[in-house]
Amino acid sequence: MGFIHRTSKQTSKVKTLLGLALPRLAAARRPRLARRSISRSDVGQLLALGHLDRALHRAEQFIEEDNMLEAFDIIELYCNRLIEHAKQLDKPNECGEDIQEAAAGIMFAAGRCSDLPELMFARTILANKFGGDFTAMAKEGTGVVDPMLVWKLSGNKRNMEMKKKVVKEIAAENNVLLDFSEFQEG
Q: What start and end residues bound the annotated signal peptide (predicted)?
């Protein structure tokens, strides 16, 4: 004798909001992909002209766009996971670690992804389901929030080592020899 597990209205609403966020994610990716591609091309051109300092500065834009695109991939994964396992949200205390991580990730990303307003509404519902302590940790990016997502959404794009790595990769692709020894960091 089985019974049908029905989801609450709030859970259905989260499922709908996350479903709406998926096409918006796809739309938000397009301009970021274009800006990343343009930034990469600009870095290559600046290196070819011998403007290492300007190429390093332009690498910041590339890193920022690349980080957001990778964050979007993680957010998409979380949206799909929560949609797929929405009925577990009706009993948040019994949710597995993967569902808690997905919920926390959505809650963290909501405040940092203005391109995805549905996440803010979903965060409110998830906060009601999971409680204040969980919500506070999720908003801060601690607890079960994936450190990679935290880093991608709030990472330091001005990190000189990261910029040098990106510039070196692009230089190698464009057969440009680099010499950082004369470069003055400032």
A: none
* Residue 157, both tokens: 């794009």
Cα separations (Å) of 184 from 3, 85, 125, 152, 179?
70, 52, 50, 27, 11
Residues whose CB falls within 8 Å of the CB of residue 150, separated by 6 or more in sequence, listed in order? 108, 141
Q: What is the pLDDT of residues 72-98, one digit of tens each?
A: 999 999 999 999 999 999 888 888 999
- Residue 86 DSSP code: G
The pTM (predicted TM-score) of the whole model is 0.88
Closest CA to 69 of 110, 109, 32, 26: 32
Spatial distance between the Cα atoms of 125 and 120, rounded to a whole number of angstroms:
9
Tokens of 14: 């989260």
**In-domain check, residue 180:** no
Number of domains in the chain: 1
The residue range of the domain holding 102 is: 7-174
Question: Contacts from 96-103 at CB under 8 Å and sequence distance 24+?
Answer: 97/144, 100/130, 100/134, 100/144, 101/144, 101/145, 101/146, 102/77, 102/78, 103/78, 103/129, 103/130, 103/134, 103/138
Residue 182 lies in a domain: no
